Amino acid sequence: MASITRELNEHMQRDTAVLLYSNAISGITISAIASTLLVFSFDDPVTNFFQVSWWCVMITLLGLRMFDAIWWKKKLQHTQFDGKKAIKHFVLGVNPTGVMWAIYLVYMSNNNIGIELTTTVIAVASLAGGATSILAAHKPTAIFYSFILLAPGSISLLMSGAFEFELLGVLGLSFCIVMILISSKAANFTRQTLFLKNENVTLVQQMEEKVKQRTQKIYELSNLDPLTGLYNRAAFLSHLKSTIETSNEKFALLFIDLDEFKKINDTIGHKAGDQILKESAGRLNQNDKDSQLVCRWGGDEFLIALRNADEKTAVEKSLQLIEQLSTPHNFENSLLTVGATIGIALYPEHAETEESLIQAADMAMYFQKKQARSTVGVFSETMEKLYSHELHLKNGLTKASENQQLRIVFQPLVSADSYKPVAFEALLRWKINGEEITPDEFISIAEQYGLIHEIGSWVLKNACLEASTWGRKIQLPVCVNVSVIQFIEDDFINIIEDALSTSNLPASLLHIEITESVFSADTATILKQVKCLQTRGVKVSIDDFGTGYSSLSAMQDLGVNMVKIDRSFVQNIHGNGRAIISAVMDIASSLDFLVVAEGVENEHQAKELAKLGVDFLQGYYFSKPLEVEDIAHFIKQHQ
Ligand code: C2E
Ligand code: MG
Ligand code: MG
């Protein structure tokens, strides 16, 4: 509000100055003509000297004013000049002119009694009359000018003692009062007109400002991501499209995906997540804005188009960005860290349209993340092949159980002392168009595309059904591998119960194997599920122990029944493997779980493991995974 009033004042002052100066040249000219005629038309030796001296001063003053008026016209008239200062200049010229006229009239009324005095009175009165409109823009000056021109002279005439001049004095004073009133009214009117005019201008300006703000808001809503202020998808795509269409320059597209962001969002909360996204956006956006276009693509994904960048520059820049993004964030007095994996695609080498370029960069990021997080990968055609193979597998996997392409094989676990089978591990097999796909390849695809739930349930049901046929006398448990994402699902316990009730398999004959990666998931949920299974009598094993994030305290809390030492340690039993296996045996005795060694391929390994106290052994040395029809024979042979 204050700024509006100030602006209005500034406009008014400038307009006042314009009105004053626009009449200045004619006003000065009239004063110059009047003073010259009055001084030189009459020849009175008594007053001549004063008149000529007065004229010299007056003409100098008028000359200075003329110079000021011309300077204002040439230099300031059409600019945003300082109105207050210009008015001051003007007034400083006008008021002395008035004083000069007053001096002239007073002097003449005292020293002349002829026609010259009467002429002077008429001339000065006319000048005062003209001034009411010429000076109307500035009330104090208009009033002062009328007053100073007429009042002192009229008073002097009143005191002259001659009746006719006293009469002239009375007339002069009356005229002065009328002129003051007229000046005051004209000034009020002019001021009001200027006010209305400028009020409208200010209102229009205010409206224009509002329209500008609204337009900006609409632009932001449709082009910017509200959380980070970066371009949104639509705006980025259209900018990228026009870059491709209008310039021939090459550029690199960086697909940036934050690592471990979801974990922070899920465990610490969305407030922390939002702060990290905002700060990451700021870090991405802090560089030269002309050379890059930054966008929040969605969730924790960002895109940067780097102008004029080749592969080398793009990789260097990406490494820098990873470093910047990995700097910890300060959230409520604790430090939170996320990483970033970046995929790069180059225009025009890798793709020629904005969509396919983004797809290529996304693919590069995706494959890079699988290999190693917080690193940079550049798109290559092999990726495209791998990706289409992956999609082919994913599509095949969707219908695998319906097309009866899935089967389960069973690998025995034997006692380390007697080599007699103590359980069988169910291992899934998938054959598509005559080709066996390894579980290492298809299980991860099933996990990524959310197919693991259906496939996992199928395995559980069929493994339990099969195990329930393994004879009444010798009842052997079945170990079923379960992915972590399947394990933490709410309905997992129901699926287990279904599998047990349809197969009539006692719960004690079912062992669930979860990999060590459970320790990186939400431990509270894992603990809850483990306890739930154990209270029902189902046993739980940790698979591939030693390859991932083991946490002894989590192991203690979980209270698993069995730990399966990974094949890599067995194979390395003469190196570091032995120390690790002995360490596991120590923990096993204090935490009270059984130990299985996986991947036993020869007699020597079997003996060494038995010596170390391992309870059970599993591996090709005893048996490869068996087809269903061979199990009965195997059991019979080894009892
Ligand atoms: P795992 O649970 O550790 O299974 C053991 C793997 O080691 C099996 O591979 C088995 O064939 C192999 N193996 C056993 N003995 C030896 C040996 O002496 N030498 C060598 N070199 N390998 C041996 P497979 O069947 O290829 O399964 C690989 C992984 O796939 C499994 O590792 C398991 O994590 C996963 N998997 C298999 N079936 C399922 C399933 O139904 N569900 C889930 N979620 N994962 C499964
Ligand atoms: Mg296993
Ligand atoms: Mg294993």
Characterization of the model:
The chain is of the alpha/beta class and 639 residues long. The protein has three domains: 6-204; 233-379, 2-Layer Sandwich (Alpha-Beta Plaits), CATH 3.30.70; 394-638, Alpha-Beta Barrel (TIM Barrel). Helix content is 62%, strand content 15%. The chain has 23 helices and 16 strands. The strands form three sheets. It has an eight-stranded mixed barrel with strand order 8-9-11-12-13-14-15-16, surrounded by five helices. Helix 3 (45-76) packs antiparallel against helix 4 and helix 9 (261-267) packs antiparallel against helix 10 (270-285). The longest helix has 61 residues, at 163-223. Bound molecules: ligand C2E and magnesium ion (2 copies). One magnesium ion is lined by residues 425, 481, 513, 543.
β-strand percent reads 5-15%
End-to-end separation in angstroms reads 97 Å
What integer value in Å does the Rg equal? Answer: 49 Å
Oligomeric organization of the protein chains: single chain
What is the top-level CATH class of the largest domain?
Answer: Alpha Beta
State the secondary-structure class: alpha/beta
What's the helical proportion of residues?
55-70%
Large-scale geometry: rod-shaped
The overall pLDDT, averaged over residues, is: 91
What is the third-level CATH name, the topology of the largest domain?
TIM Barrel
